[in-house]
Each structure stands twice: as structure tokens, then as C-alpha cells.
Amino acid sequence: MSKVALVTGGMGGIGTAICRQLAQQGFKVATTYSRAGREQAWLDEQAAAGFTFHAYECDVSDYEACSKMAAQIRAELGEVDVLVNNAGITKDATFKRMDKTNWDAVIRTNLDSLFNVSKQFVDGMADRGWGRVINISSINGQKGQFGQTNYSAAKAGMHGFTMALAQEVAKKGVTVNTISPGYIATDMVMAVPEDVRNKIIAGIPAGRLGKPEEIAGLIGYLVSDVAGFMTGANLAINGGQHMC
């Protein structure tokens, strides 16, 4: 019977690539979306490309919504074996101009969501003796970024969560890892003015933006059986832009 994978926020550029990678590895793949309206078009687009996914509306910053989502997935697909915490938002401003509303929104969506979603599934993984949790952080959680105190704090906090949880469940056959992507050629990044984008690329030793499929390929390894000895790691995939 196929294992089940859940990718939160899976309808963006990186999320879609992750969903497709997991499907190609034989998982039944579910994803979440926060606002109704575009999910059917995305599902239809994926179906036309040969992928059958399952989508669930869920505000990952709301614990009760996550509990409801988890119950729906169990009823329709079965227990979740792989969790990719990918959902995230930005509300950028310098600290001087940042207000409490935008601080809270980013922390709740990008960091609190790790507890809200992981809490629904990790105990079950441990009880069954196998599981994979992958938290999608950011290069800016490693080095910081001007105008992103909220985002950088949340993304750095993700790896603290990873390291602590990894220690708790390692003996249960469950791995927990962080991936910290650099600048990836998603629609959002490609919408940046070309001159700004060129300045970004100039700061990347590899001389290019990353591809969503490269992030997905790394996840493909982490969810495999041969990755059982890797846990608590923060894997940078940024073209050499930040090395630590």
C-alpha cells in the first residue's frame, strides 16, 4: 500500500515540484491551500500533466483547522508518513516600520504552523516506526536579511524545532530535517524586475537561480529509506551564496 505524503502550501512553484517528486516516488500526495478559489485549476493542471493530488483547505496558523485537516486526510487517504512543512508567507518591512500585525502573521504562518501541523502526525509516525518530517526554511534564516526580521526569525526558529524534535523521535525511525533554499526560479522570483534579479544572481557563485526541481530532488532523497541515518540536519541549497 502506498505511503501518504502531505505538503503544506504545495501549490506554489517549489511546492508543486515537491508534490510531483513525491508522486513519482509512489506516494499518495496531499497538499493544503489557505484560500479557496484556485485549487481546482491547480488540480486540473496537475491532472493534465499526469499527477493526481488531493487538496485540503487549511489555515496552518490555526491549530483547530490543522486538526480538522488531519482527520479528513486520515479518513480519505490513511495515515501520513511524510510531512513537508512548506507553507510560508512574507510581510517585509524594516524593523522600524514593522507593525505587530505583520510580525504575528509571519510567525504564526511560518513557525507556529510547525507545531500545529506536525503535532497531528508525528506521534503516529513514531508508533508505526517510520516517518519523515522536512521543514522548508530559507537562506535568510541562516544569514538574516535586511527588512525581514519577522521572516528570518521564523525561518531560523524552524531549524531549532528540527534539531529538538529530531532528538526525540530518532529511535522511533522518524527523521526530521531542515532544507534552506536560496533564490529559486519560481514565478515570484521571476516577477522581480530584471535588473534586481540580475544583481541577485551576481551574488550567487553558481551564477544562476536554483530550480524548484532541485529542491524537490533533495526531498526525494530525504524521504527515502536510505536517508534513515540523516536527521537534525540543515541542508543549504543556495548555489554557494551562503556557506556555513
Describe this structure in words.
The protein contains 9 helices and 7 strands. A 7-stranded parallel β-sheet has the order 3-2-1-4-5-6-7, with helices on both faces. Helix content is 47%, strand content 16%. Strand 1, helix 1 and strand 2 form a beta-alpha-beta unit. It is α/β, with parallel strands linked by helices and 244 residues long. The chain has helices at 13-24, 39-48, 63-76, 100-128, 139-143, 149-169, 187-190, 194-202, 212-222, and strands spanning 4-7, 28-33, 54-57, 80-85, 131-136, 174-181, 234-237. It has a single domain (4-237), classed as NAD(P)-binding Rossmann-like Domain (Rossmann fold, 3-Layer(aba) Sandwich), CATH 3.40.50.720. Helix 3 packs parallel to helix 4 and helix 4 runs parallel beside helix 6. The N and C termini lie far apart (40 Å).
